[in-house]
Amino acid sequence: MITVQTSINAPIASVWEKWNSPEAIMQWNQASPDWHCPTAEVDLRVGGKYKSTMAAKDGSMQFDFEGTYTKVIPNELIEHTMADGRKVRVQFEKAGESTRIIEEFEPETSHPVDMQRDGWQAILDNFKKHVEAL
């Protein structure tokens, strides 16, 4: 498992809502400014599906992320299985006035572990910036 995490200066309910809102996901789900997220779908319930696309703004490449939710505890925990079978766990913890997110995921085999960790951390950092800017 690879772990990335951050603390966000916002209440847990607000962080949860921004994490799971398709409109918000399209605003923050990218690792760098030359990428964007043109589509996002969320059916946040056990057995529900999610899908988002992260694409280079120049159209040169894109990645589709999709899967099925396996556990949902509002404002606390989301577990899901990606379409390729990898498991992901996202914890939301109240930390005073802030919210801590701890995201764990199984690595894929096509890219180095450090590259995957850095990419997921960059997306999480972008999420933090998005929430704190509101």
Automatic annotation (TrEMBL):
**CDD domains, per database record:** SRPBCC_CalC_Aha1-like_4
- Please indicate which superkingdom the organism of origin belongs to: Bacteria
Q: Where is the Activator of Hsp90 ATPase homologue 1/2-like C-terminal domain?
A: 9-132
- State a single Pfam family of this protein: AHSA1
Q: Which protein family is named in the record?
A: Belongs to the AHA1 family.
UniProt name for this protein: Uncharacterized protein YndB with AHSA1/START domain
